[in-house]
Every structure is written in structure tokens, then in C-alpha cells.
Amino acid sequence: MKPFVRVMKALSDPSRVKIMKLLQRRQLCVCELTAGLGLAQPTVSKHLKILEEAGLVTSTKEGLWVNYRLADGESSPYAAALIGNLRHWLNDDPEIMRLYERLPHLNRETLCGK
Questions:
Q1: Is residue 113 part of a domain?
Q2: For 70, phi and psi rounded to 5 degrees?
Q3: Both ends of the chain: CA-CA distance in Å?
Q4: What is the pLDDT of residue 65?
Q5: Domain count, the chain
Q6: Which residues contact 99 (CB under 8 A, 6 or more apart)?
Q7: Is the pLDDT of residue 113 over 80?
Q8: Is the pTM of this model over 0.90?
Q9: 3-state SS class at 39
Q10: Is the pLDDT of residue 105 over 60?
């Protein structure tokens, strides 16, 4: 039951749901997520850690960047089910629609200055 509860708790926070919705569109680094959500970097990093521990998000290091993307769901059938269903949920939510509008302007080179 613990893996199920971990996934459900991870998605119980609106900011983490927004992160998941953004990552459905493309992989992002912390600075892009920070700018898109209007949250502090430590807050975004904490949310990403919770999502990663639940098997919902994975990260890879690429030079200076740590890229976050949706997990493939292999680590947990609960994560896989929710990742799949979340693709169809909340797409017409006004907050999510505003995030999607900001997404093309989230550029790590500009935001992070590297």
C-alpha cells in the first residue's frame, strides 16, 4: 500500500500537479520550472524530489543542466496509471492553460544565464 499512498500524496499538491502538466509538454530544468510557476528554486526542487521518489518524474544530467521529464511508469503501476490519466485531465483548467501559454518563453539559456 505504501507505493500507492506515495504516488497519491505526491499529486495532492497543486504545484506538483502543475509540474506534471508542464513536463507532459517537454523536459524542463529547475530554472524553467521556477520561472513558469513563479516559485522559489528550493521549493521547486523539493517538489521535484517528492515527484521523483514517487516514480512520477525522472532526471538526467546533461552538462550543466539537470533535465526533468515524466517517468515511463516502469517503477510503479500506480505512477504509470496516473501519468497516463493525467494527460487527459485538467487541460481546460484556466491555470494550466496559462502555464501552457508561458511554456514557449521558458528558455534555460535566457533564464539561467549560462
A1: no
A2: -65, 145
A3: 43
A4: 84
A5: 1
A6: 18, 21, 22, 36, 37
A7: no
A8: yes
A9: coil
A10: yes
Query: Residue 29 phi/psi, 5° resolution?
Result: -95, 175
* DSSP 8-class letter at 57: E
Strands (DSSP E) contained in the chain are: 57-62, 65-70
C-alpha cell recorded at residue 7: 504516488
Which amino acid type is present at position 82? L
Domain harbouring 25, CATH code: 1.10.10.10
- 8-state DSSP, 28: B
- Domain membership of residue 111 (yes or no) is no
Does residue 112 lie within any of the structural domains? no
Model confidence over 5-42: pLDDT tens digits? 999 999 999 999 999 999 999 999 999 999 999 999 99
Containing domain of residue 75, as a range?
2-105
Distance between CA 13 and CA 10 in Å, rounded? Answer: 7
Tens digit of each residue's pLDDT (9 = 90 or more) over 49-73: 999 999 999 999 988 889 999 999 8
